[in-house]
């Protein structure tokens, strides 16, 4: 398969000449997942994204396939149950992306703590049951204060009671998006980035029938005809609905901003991900996560009303996170000058907290006694000893010990909603990256229902829980062994062990296709051979159209390999300019775009470096 600039023009020609079964607006994780399922099920599928794939929310997450243990304290049991089960599905269909990485949750003796040692253990036991890992090597366990400090010597010992350790997974969010997009394209879908919707089209009966779009690369405007239109634009969901003049769209989104900061692991070393209360009694928790040879921490989770296209890290965000991290790691003494890179992203939260499928029962914390009752009744239900309504009775009668207000954005559920407006426009919004496949499943099923009801077309949905994304054709039970074999194959072709391992973990079962480029391309001056073939693969097979696409989203070079970024920028730009035959103006434009992104990531405006 070729998924490149040439393929883009072919897909645009299809948009101009044919009627799609479904047009998906939005190329983040939910849209990508829906495109994969629709394309594999035989629907003539199109997807348009006004930026690069994953450029919005889906490349700006905490980069975990997170199980949501904290939601048990908020008592979103259904959220956690769906999430941990779905996480296992994602690991099965994209085994090269989510990687098990158990999380430490320290408990401190301080006011309004999210967990006591008792309630944490109860929550972890319930979590393990929901995740079906009880009795396995991934089962939770507790650590004494002394054991915690032995493992994490920099952690503040004052008030520390102990910790719990439970299963979680690290993730490469942007890679998960592009691998879904590539599989959809391979199955005949038409995936086009940098294509902005400017109008929702309607047929003679007033039903949504496509969109007028602007090609942001050429300035051309075209009409795309489709039998069904799906809105998967995350924070922009209200914008697209309000663009539809056949419906009275009431805003439902309440975006919040999340900020993450990256430092060298020599400054702050953690052996595994850590998750703790902020210590500010504000109802929030913060992650500190090792990645490559860096450590990153976040998130802020504050209401956001600014420019959705360009959320930025502000001084208040930095001050807030540094205050928390330095309090928890008092010997670190991290300052803004230690921050090597950063990112800010939006969470597409639903304002009413009333989304279907994932919201659970409430956002209130509950007492320890109620936790014990819940654990018992769920265990009995899983053993077939009680009925579902008996579980529901327990859920409805829990005792609240709420220390968080409903106006706090940190308490908003990450539930999703699926709505079909009166003109047939489908909007799927909210949710978490972990739940993307399940959200997409419901949306595509709604498309198929409309196609059968209104157009007499019949389709059978694929079993997407068993359908790998691109690069995912590995045995999920032996992914480490298969990745090691791919690494060895790269070493046999002349790559170093670290280069081959990097490529094998990045590309999964597509790694041999990347290695094949060793016989086709010459090493680019200023780049390693591994970076050379990675760049060419990104341009030829992953629709990398700009240097930012490659350095930020096809790889995480800007975020987690900041040390070597500056020396590869010029070689990358020069090779992309040569390959894509850019004009001088185009090259200058993309260079400026990348420089702006790097300056923002480096926090140059906040550091006073305006050169």
UniProtKB/TrEMBL annotation:
Requisite cofactors: FAD
Coiled coil: none
InterPro entries per the UniProt record, alphabetical: DAO_C, DAO_C_sf, FAD-dep_OxRdtase, FAD/NAD-bd_sf, G3P_DH_FAD-dep
SUPFAM superfamilies given in the database record: FAD-linked reductases, C-terminal domain (SSF54373), FAD/NAD(P)-binding domain (SSF51905)
Alphabetical list of Pfam families matching this protein: DAO, DAO_C
Sequence ranges assigned to domain Alpha-glycerophosphate oxidase C-terminal in this UniProt record: 465-586
Domain of life where this protein originates: Bacteria
EC number(s) per entry: 1.1.3.21
Keywords: FAD, Flavoprotein, Glycerol metabolism, Oxidoreductase
Catalytic activity: sn-glycerol 3-phosphate + O2 = dihydroxyacetone phosphate + H2O2
Gene3D superfamilies: Alpha-glycerophosphate oxidase, cap domain, D-Amino Acid Oxidase, subunit A, domain 2, FAD/NAD(P)-binding domain
A single GO BP: glycerol-3-phosphate catabolic process
Domain FAD dependent oxidoreductase: 21-351
An example molecular function term from Gene Ontology annotations: glycerol-3-phosphate oxidase activity
Record-stated family: Belongs to the FAD-dependent glycerol-3-phosphate dehydrogenase family.
NCBIfam families: glycerol3P_ox_1
Protein name: Alpha-glycerophosphate oxidase
Organism: Alkalibacterium olivapovliticus
